[in-house]
Write a structure and sequence with these properties.
single chain, alpha/beta, six-stranded mixed β-sheet, two-stranded parallel ribbon, 8 strands, 40% helix
Amino acid sequence: MRRQVRLTQEGFDRLQGTLDQEYRRFEEASSILQELIGSSDDYDDSGLEDAKREKARIEQRIDNLEDQLSRAVIIEKHKMDSVELSAVVTLQETLSKEAFSVQIVAPLEAGVLEGDIPKVSDESPLGKAVMGRKAGEHVKVTINDKTTEYVLMSIE
């Protein structure tokens, strides 16, 4: 059975936009390749080979995006008592008292910055530490042998 890809609506829309862009790139690459095939001579076909490789890379990217979108399940937003995918959590470091917010998302959406809130994978050390937790709980996150303790201030 194929594994579902859980996405926020924003992540799904962004992925669809990327696929649309790749379709346009594919059309351009196909057009360039046709021109090169028509004007290619036997002595210099390095440009032709480069164009073929680029078209193949775009085809592979399109296949990957289509596969991800076909397996996508949109995460519904709802009031959360504990941290789930799509939750925006505010954490405060216990020592420095510095606070920050992140949105917990699937790995496919992680690393994207939309607005002021970074997206963090539920499979990252921070994501794993907060998943299923409730506001007010303390969580410890270990990255490269350094452990930091946070208080989960809020869940949206």
